[in-house]
Every structure is written in structure tokens, then in C-alpha cells.
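User: I'll paste a sequence; please echo it back and then give the predicted structure.

Assistant: Echoing your sequence first, then the prediction.
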Amino acid sequence: MKGEPTAIGNHGTVLFYDGDCGLCHRCVAWFLKHDRRKNVRFAPLQGETYANLDLERPADLSTMVLLDPRGLWTESSAVLAGLRAIGGGWRGLAAIGALVPKFIRNAIYRFVASRRIGWFGPADGCLLPGEASRFLP
């Protein structure tokens, strides 16, 4: 049985990513490094956490999805929401990024996303084993 998106509330902010994508793994590693307050948790789009939510899975998995108490964010808006979630100066960068019209941000996002495997290759292993508690199935 699928749960409501609010069922993730116990986990706070969750960034869903393509677990088979090298660029996505690098982005998650970046968030792990810069999220000093440990506000963001992570789960693959292919995992059971995402499957148990009442959300449609992106068709090609190139879409980053972020779920937080304010709502569901995708593509470039998910990146900006992630920057807001880790706080500090990154919140300011998110505010500047939000000044760029969404259709332009998403066009750039989609351009990179469509080439991510060719440019960065597939994922090559697990992400920072010491941070296992921040990952959901």
C-alpha cells in the first residue's frame, strides 16, 4: 500500500536520485560534504522508500526529486530546495538561482541530465559508508 507524501515527514528532507548514475552519486557526495547540519537524507528513485510514496516515478530517472515539509520539488527546483535545506551561504546561492526563470533553469538541467551517463559514466560503488544512517532504502 502506498503512503501519502507526508509519510516521509519522519525523515525530514529527502533527496531522491538515480542510484545508477555517476553524476547523481557525485551530487549526493557533494551534499553529504556540505550539509554539516545533516538536514538532508538520501534515497534512490529505484528504492523502496520512493516506491512506498504515492508519487509517480520519473520515466527516465534523470529527474532529481526532493521532498521536504514545504512540498515536492523536481529538476532545477529540487537542486535549489536542496541548497536551501543545507543552509548557510548555500541558501543565498539558491536565492540567486531562483532569479533565473524556471524554464531556463530546467532547460539547462535537462541538457545535462540527458548526457549525464555519457559524461560521467555509471555509478561506481557505494557512497561514504560512514554516512549510512543518512540513506533510506
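The radius of gyration is 14 Å. The longest helix spans residues 102-120.
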